[in-house]
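Dear colleagues,

I hope this message finds you well. In preparation for our joint manuscript, I am sending the MmcQ/YjbR family DNA-binding protein (Dactylosporangium fulvum) sequence together with its predicted structure, so that both groups work from identical material. I would be grateful if you could confirm receipt.
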Amino acid sequence: MTDADDVRRLALTLPHVVEIDSDGFDFRVADKGFVWSYPERVPGKPRVIRTDVAVLYVGDEAEKQALLLGEPERFFTTPAYDGLPLVMLRLERVDVDRLRELVTDAWRMRAPDELAADLPGPG
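The corresponding C-alpha cells are as follows:
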C-alpha cells in the first residue's frame, strides 16, 4: 500500500526531476510529465485532484492495454485519456517496489537519452 508521499519520495530520487507546484503532485523530466495526481473530472462538478491516484506515462497503447487488462484492480482509464499513453494507478493497491518500477519506467520513457544515461541500471 502506497500513497502520495511514496510517489514524491521515489520520483525525487530520479535524476533531473522537477516537481511542479500543484494541489497534488506533478513530476517532470526535461519539461515532460511522467507521473502526476489524477485530475478527476465529473460532469457538472469542479475538477478534484486525487492524490490517491497517480497518472503514469506508459509509452504506448499496447503497454497501456496490457496493464489495464492484466491488473484491473490497480489500473484504470477514462474516456478523457483515450488515445493517450497514460494510465491511472490506485496507489493503495500497489506496494513500494512495484511503484518504484512504474515510476522509474515512466521516467525512462520521458527522459531524453542524454539524461537517461544518468540513471544507473538497465535501460
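For the figure legend, we might mention the following. The chain has one domain: 4-114. Strands lie at 17-19, 26-29, 32-40, 48-57, 75-76, 86-90.

With kind regards,
E.M.
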